[in-house]
């Protein structure tokens, strides 16, 4: 404090002509006024920190600092400039029993966001036993909301009760708002019941609380509105906005329309941006986008908030292209976009995979100097992830030091979309390690990653984590656990999870069926379908696809025909995925003519159907027809994808058409700009290997990245064994053991290669290596019944 006094005195010694002239001219204003009025005028017109300190110094030397009136103005000025220590020092020097002074200081601290100081002063005020009125109670409650201090707020409520303020409508509304913010509607309701004279403000506070908490409380908002009208209290604009929010929560379109009609009749909300934006939000959530667009089009003043609501609406309705068009229109009309607008623009580009436009929005954020918040970072991470730019996405992710579950989920989804399951699991581990609580999306994503990795050990650990944190009660999570066990080969564990699900939905039944089919237990899948039908549950196209795969495994052509007939009876003949599955089933059951007939008369406009039919020809070794179909596809202007080339190359490999296969492989890049992936390289290596051109195949494999070479090396190793090329086989075997140390089939192939060439010691060493790692060869089975 002595140091602070010294600073004030030193300011008087500084010779600043400009400040001095300004100070003197203001001081001479109203020369007939008293000293107190002069200094009060100076403080009211103070716009500079240095000038404020000169005034303070002058008050100090003239011994006017003890004046309660001037002291309160001085404290308010320091608060206005954010000088907390100085304001506290001045206030402590002039502490008085004047409650008005305490209230003005409390309000000042609240307005600059110094909520902790508000609560500190409130406690000091109680200790001084000066008394309380509604103002410190109200602003203390608001500060508790901002700080998340529920217990402190309950203490303030006790004080309000002691001083008899709980029946006051102003304090009561603040208490209702406090409890509502903490989602304690029981507490809010008790406060509401204690208020004797309820006016529109009290009713609106309670209705707003119910609307914001949502859920079943949204119904109570409408019940309270009815009670309000019975007491002849008409709703105002704020009431109607809250009721619209409740209607949107319940997706009660008819009720919202009644509110809209009432507002038009009473002339409420006309040309009011907040009310009109609330109307737009209501119609968007009720999926009546045309009405929202109509309201938006009629708005006289379109603010950034209303543009954001409209853009968000198009995004939520799955129309990212229209949302992006609205974003560009907003910019064209010189409405300055905020971070929410730019985040929405990034999300549009993410859904559309418009990398160039997304990078342009990112560049705009950098140019205008916006400080990226967690919402905008999340949107940009999603945009780069969906555009397959994971390096940029990860850099942005790492920039954000404070991350929430949503940002972690977006990063995990990005890795999953790009088939990087290991990295997705690492992100989840990091999330838990930093103390961020996972949500349902996090759990579903990490289970999906573990399913892709077929990591049963980590999957069991994750199941334990889910049980400890009680996520297993959610049906979606239980379905994903079931799927994870099925994909990892632990089908009995999957069945136990299925049996434990209390409320099984269609996905639960279908997931279990798919698990059985995936593990080759076709009979169990068919039996489960029959149980599902007995329980009165209807099926969908995914269920039928699983059923067809089961029939394919069992070789039941008659049952497959029954599904075909059912499609026509149920008017599902345009369900393309089921038709494609039926084509594959007919092909696998040897009825290529039926598969061809189905293709020709149903879904020729769908790329997947062309791929399915090409694969069917390849399955039967009819490569000539597969190539003819590929030519027809090109003439029909249907652009092939990666799966098309995989099917054609497989067909060429099975038929031994090496030159045709190489020609197709080359045209991937030259004609369609498709970069070959692991499967394509494996097909072309298999093609060359079957033709005995091992050196060419090996030269191709050596230029591949390690991640893409495993499948191709497996094919080449099998060819080396078939053609007796031991030297190359040993080199490839060693590479594969380094790449896939957990794959038992690799050890089996390498061991067999050594054994066939009389190298028994090496073969035994490889078998022992596999045994030490706990690896076992998958047990074979036959679908042929033994009589």
Tell me about this structure:
The protein has a domain at 1-94. It is 74% helix and 0% strand. The chain is built from 46 helices and no strands. Helix 5 (68-80) packs parallel to helix 7, helix 24 packs antiparallel against helix 25 (405-417) and helix 38 runs antiparallel to helix 39 (642-655). The longest helix has 15 residues, at 658-672. Residues 1-33 and 779-787 have low confidence and may be disordered. GO terms for molecular function: mRNA binding.
Summarize the structure.
Helices cover 74% and strands 0% of the residues. It has 787 residues and is an all-alpha fold.
What's the total number of strands? Answer: 0
Instruction: Compute the number of helices.
Output: 46
Radius of gyration: 37 Å
Unreliable spans: 1-33, 779-787
Q: What is the approximate shape?
A: elongated
Mean pLDDT rating: 82
Structural class: mainly alpha
Summarize the amount of helix as a percent range.
over 70%
Distance from first to last alpha carbon: 102 Å
Beta-strand content estimate: under 5%
Main beta sheet: none
